Amino acid sequence: MSRMSVDAIFGTVRAVLLDFDGPVCAAFAGYPSPQITDQMRGILSRAFPEALSRCRHRYPLHALAQLGEVPRQVHDEMEQVIQQGELRAVESATATPGTTAFLSACREGRLPVIIVTNNYEAAVRRYLDRMRLTEYILAVVARDTSDATRMKPHPYLVHRAVDHLGVPAQRCVLVGDSDTDIQAAVTAGTLSIGYANKSGKDRQFRRLGANSVVADMSILAAAVRRTRKATSSSADRTNG
């Protein structure tokens, strides 16, 4: 996938697909996610120990994705643990600097934003309500709680968001902070911007095919304002 400046991206797209944990907030800043994974491992130890060796990742959603096939009752019990953990975590989640400015710029520029996330929808909405960000978001497309295989990097959630918007995939950009975001965007055919909030992520995102990489969400806010202003000025000259 070709490299592009953020101005070139926002001069092209008609909608933004925004990951939640990372670009919007640090969801587990006040409630460390390994606590949830430990509870998941406890369930496996009791109910399905043969899968315990597959539950290695400390981040619960990655651990869930690693598990593969498990009995429905075990999956549902772990899903409940994750949901309750996420709902608790977002009460103390911390906002990502620059994201409110980015969302505001998108609204001013009439650029719809859809949250596309592997997180639990009710937890996402609880955070948006707490931070008074709901009005900036057109929709929330969250993980299918009945089927962990549909989480990113699978393109299912991205396809759902694009279908909701009714615009071509190539006219959307996905902004995310993980490999799975970039992989899902590439597979679904959208543009992508990697939010490199940790050292080394920039190189990894470019290797995976991200069109652009930023380390500060404020950069995106400024780019939206520049490009939407330029587009508006061009339209005014044409109409005049």
Keywords:
two-stranded antiparallel ribbon, 240 residues, Rossmann fold, disordered C terminus, alpha/beta, six-stranded parallel beta sheet, single chain, 10 helices
What is this structure, in a nutshell?
The chain is of the alpha/beta class and 240 residues long. 48% of the residues lie in helices and 12% in strands.
Question: How would you describe this protein?
Answer:
The protein is α/β, with parallel strands linked by helices and 240 residues long. It has two domains: 6-26 and 96-239, Rossmann fold, CATH 3.40.50.1000; 34-89, no CATH class. The chain is built from ten helices and eight strands. The protein has helices at 6-10, 34-47, 60-67, 72-89, 99-108, 121-130, 156-165, 179-188, 201-208, 217-239, and strands at 15-18, 25-26, 94-95, 113-116, 139-141, 172-176, 191-195, 212-214. The strands form two sheets. Strands 5-4-1-6-7-8 form a six-stranded parallel sheet, with helices on both faces. 41% of the residues are buried.
Largest sheet: 6 strands, parallel
Q: Radius of gyration, rounded? A: 18 Å
Number of strands: 8
Count of the separate structural domains: 2
Shape: globular
Any low-confidence stretches, pLDDT <50, length ≥5? Answer: 235-240
- Order of helical and strand elements: HEEHHHEHEHEHEHEHEH
The share of residues in extended strands comes to: 5-15%
Task: From the 3D structure, determine the CATH topology of the largest domain.
Answer: Rossmann fold
CATH architecture of the largest domain: 3-Layer(aba) Sandwich
| Order of strands across the main sheet | 5-4-1-6-7-8
State the distance separating the first and last CA atoms.
Answer: 37 Å
CATH superfamily of the largest domain: HAD superfamily/HAD-like
* Estimated structural class: alpha/beta
Helical segment tally? Answer: 10
Mean pLDDT: 94
Secondary structure: helix percent: 40-55%
CATH class division of the largest domain: Alpha Beta
